[in-house]
Amino acid sequence: MITLRQNRVYQNLTNVASADEPDLLTAGNGANNMQSFLYYWKPQTVDEERDRGELLNHSASEQFDRVQVGDHVWHATVRDGELSIIGRIIVGHVVDQEGAARLLGKKSDELWARPHHIVAETNTAEPIREVRIPQLSASLRFEGPHDRLAVDNGKVSVFQLRAMRTLTLGSAAELERAYVRTA
User: Fold this and answer.
1) 80: CB partners within 8 A, 6+ apart
2) Among 12, 54, 144, 154, which is least packed by CB within 10 angstroms?
3) CA-to-CA distance for 13 and 24, rounded, in angstroms?
4) Distance from the Cα of residue 171 to its chain's centroid
């Protein structure tokens, strides 16, 4: 059975793919429609992934159903109320777990068991690098009715980040500047 998401992907394919090739089931949304998201990882996850020494080239979540090829997914964490970005994935593929395993050359059970996986565009993955950005917490803006983080005495509640947030273009540019400046 094909889900609504899969049907949308099939309708937008830029390359012909078959249902048994999920790594090809990605739809480009073009440079003009690219979105940037802020996605939360628990500090423990950040530490584990950084200690593995691998590049930030893959992530998995129930929330990635609205992510498309070309989008930027900024990964963030909160430690002691301070917001940090840990890197960004420039999305090259949106796939299921089997598709991600094939693309990454891993076994499926070595990956997080989630329905949606994003894999970085070729040659764009970087090491995880935690950049504290408490000075930006109050100025970040998001699409939708809850367009900003509530900041109390410079601190952010992690509960505001449980759902992936769509960044405005200006806020995505602020994150980019902050991340590049510390490289």
Assistant:
1) 155
2) 144
3) 9
4) 15
CATH number for the domain spanning 19: value is 3.10.590
| Segments forming the whole domain that contains residue 166 | 4-181
C-alpha 131/C-alpha 85 separation (Å) is 5
Q: Residue 47 is inside which H or E element, if any?
A: helix 43-52
Q: Tell me the pLDDT tens digit for each residue of 80-121.
A: 999 999 999 999 999 999 999 999 999 999 999 999 999 999
DSSP three-state, residue 176: helix
- Paired residues of 94 in beta bridges: 118
Identify whether the C-beta of residue 121 lies closer than 8 Å to the C-beta of residue 130: no
Burial bucket for residue 91 (CB in 10 Å: 0-12, 13-18, 19+): buried
Name the domain count of the chain. 1
The predicted model scores a pTM of 0.82
Q: How many CB atoms lie within 10 A of CB 96?
A: 17
Is residue 43 within 8 A of residue 77, CB to CB? The reply is: yes
